[in-house]
Amino acid sequence: MAQYTPPLRDMQFVLHEVLGATERLRELPAHAEVTRELADQVIEEGGKFCAQVLFPLNRSGDEAGCTWSADGSVRTPEGFKEAWEQFKAGGWPTLTCAPEFGGQGLPHSIGMTFNEMLNSANQAWAMYPGLTHGAYDCLKTHGTPEQKALYLPRLVSGQWTGTMCLTEPHCGTDLGLLRSKAEPNADGSFAITGTKIFISSGEHDLAENIVHLVLARLPDAPAGTKGISLFIVPKFVPGADGRVGARNGIRCGRLEEKMGIHANATCEMNLEGATGWLVGEPNKGLNAMFVMMNAARIGVGMQSLGLMEVAYQNSLAYAKDRLQMRSLTGPKAPEKPADPIIVHPDVRRMLLTQKAWVEGSRCFAAWLALQADIAEGHPDADERKAAHDLLSLLTPVCKAFITDNGFASTNLALQVFGGHGYIREWGMEQYVRDARINMIYEGTNTIQSLDLLGRKVLGDNGAKLKAFGRLIQEFVEEEGTNEDMAEFVNPLADLGEKVTKLSMEIGMKALGNADEAGAAAVDYLRVVGHLVYSYFWARMAKVALARVQADPDAAEPFYRAKLATARFYFARLQPETAALIRTARSGAASLMALEAELF
Ligand SMILES: Cc1cc2nc3c(=O)[nH]c(=O)nc-3n(C[C@H](O)[C@H](O)[C@H](O)COP(=O)(O)OP(=O)(O)OC[C@H]3O[C@@H](n4cnc5c(N)ncnc54)[C@H](O)[C@@H]3O)c2cc1C
What we know:
Blueprint: H1 8-18, H2 21-25, H3 36-54, H4 58-64, E1 67-68, E2 74-75, H5 80-89, H6 108-142, H7 145-157, E3 160-165, E4 181-184, E5 190-200, E6 209-216, E7 229-234, E8 236-238, E9 244-247, E10 250-255, E11 266-279, H8 285-321, H9 345-377, H10 381-416, H11 419-422, H12 428-437, H13 445-457, H14 463-479, H15 486-512, H16 515-550, H17 557-573, H18 576-585, H19 589-592
Parallel strand pairs: 3-6
Antiparallel strand pairs: 1-2, 4-5, 5-11, 6-7, 7-11, 8-9, 10-11
Helix pairs in contact: 1-3, 1-9, 3-6, 6-7, 6-8, 6-9, 8-9, 8-10, 8-12, 9-10, 9-16, 9-17, 10-12, 10-13, 10-14, 10-16, 13-16, 14-15, 15-16, 15-18, 16-17, 16-18
């Protein structure tokens, strides 16, 4: 059976020691009162809820899955509803929501740590509140005052949940092909007809009502993405007082059978003249939906971070316990019939790879969440814009790099178990299955890489990338005279220069042939991902090094482990960039030469 212990120490290290989060938050009027103690208390209590309530339901939920009935209702696995009630009673859905709608108004940087733990404990369960929070974000930004008053307090409290209904059978990535129709009704509402597929949390028995955010076309809408509008389509039409009324014409036609996240209901949703209300302006629905999609992309990164952490913890415990063969350099546990497998260099490679991805991702994610806090609440408009730009640049990296590494990492965790990882008993194969979807939904990782290279980097002539580069430059200059930091700073500075050159080179080639950008994008995102991780690993190493050097004997062993992992990252993972830069530079020709019929 798998185990999970919330990684509180590492979360505190990242938030307090590396990022100085509460000091930074003090600049923001809404969060000026947030102290370390408060942050730690929330994380600790959140961790208890995740480990004690959600984690025990992870395996049973995977085995039972959701159940669909012919009346269109869906039952979640045993224990899910009770966990939802406890979640609500503890005020957990309100954590980072605005106080005016019943939220606690805590910063995203604290919410992010809770999000990670939810996903370590039970990704499938965590998707119900995850999508609800996305719907809250979207309506908070684009809803009318009446829509906000009616829907937001109920989404915040967890009385109602939310979904995002974009995908249709013939269109996933290319939403411009979308066909669902919205016909105006006399009373200002719309009658919406169409079929949406793969809708996560589309139907279930957790909450009183489900608020679907649906993309559809108005009768006079232009073709393509410029003709898409966004509508609220509640499962039960509420009165102005919030009491649920008539059943609306949106029903779950079936559940998908799938590889992982069995306990999350993936629904085909049929809309037959369902009553909906326009959100935002007509034909600007995709823009409005982007609020939800951007938040969800970071949320998906957190899903993989959570899975990596729990899988790592289990593979580490196993590697210390499982006895096989002797160390190449002679017995390390001579009193036992064989050595624990953690003595073997390659088992260590697998463990350290996971550890480096997990801890690098956690630091990156917490920093990104801090940028979200600053972008939302800094009194200075320039600071808000700078944070917003960084968030926008690195959202696709958070989604794609963390989920690619998350899948690789959970696979390594399984591998550490040998054959015992492949069978169900230890729970490792579930993590691999669950982690796989994170590379696909919310825009596949290929689409994230096109977004990064095309829109975020080339789209503004590298301005946002340069802003991130300046942070690196400042760090490199600050640490440039510290010889002990050279092993971390030099590869960081070197990669920074290479990324600048590579971006310019691809940009030039893409001017002549747009396929050049498409051919380079996936490798490019991975290289930028490494630049981001190099920066955060160097920053973490700096803090750890200072603690170890200040008092080598008294320093908490945690810091030595951090330094060793930073060294491993730069020695064994970052060098992947050399090959990636080569393949990114190899151009489109080798991909495009073969006619489709000759494949
Ligand atoms: C379990 C699950 C839950 C989901 N939850 C939701 C949800 O809640 N709401 C919702 O609306 N949708 C949801 N989805 C849908 C999901 O977002 C889509 O599956 C995803 O966006 C990809 O679309 P597609 O499956 O149609 O693949 P396609 O768009 O057909 O793509 C197929 C392949 O082609 C590639 N490709 C497409 N276009 C390009 C291009 N221009 N350049 C390079 N490569 C390209 C893709 O990367 C992919 O590898 C869910 C899907 C699953 C499986």
